[in-house]
Amino acid sequence: MDIPNSPTTKFRLGSDYQTIHRGFHLLLEERGKLNINDPVKKYMADAPPAWDKVTIYNLLTQLPNSSFTGFPD
């Protein structure tokens, strides 16, 4: 296809993005900016009560197409 890109162009990133995203979080941990064992609510205070025990590690190791449905609408 010969479709030009624009500021609103959307790309399908899929699994490639997950690897980059996980690497980014590990880099932040290495630099002392976060701890992957911290609860998500430490960084998102308005997260729902169902997330009280969810850690960054839990999210980073979540498999695609799994049964986790704790995200708010």
Structure description:
- There is one protein chain.
- The chain has 73 residues and is mostly helical.
- It has 2 helices and no strands.
- The chain is elongated.
- The termini are far apart.
- The mean pLDDT is 78.
Structural class: mainly alpha
Count of alpha/pi helices? 2
Oligomer: single chain
Average pLDDT rating = 78
Report how far the terminal alpha carbons are from each other.
34 Å
> What string, H for helix and E for strand, traces the elements in order?
HH
Radius of gyration: 16 Å
Q: Give a short account of the largest sheet.
A: none
What is the percent of helical residues? 25-40%
Salient structural properties:
single chain; 73 residues; mainly alpha; 2 helices; 30% helix; elongated
Layout of strands and helices, then pairs:
Layout lengths: L13 H17 L25 H5 L13
Can you summarize this structure?
The chain has 73 residues and is an all-alpha fold.
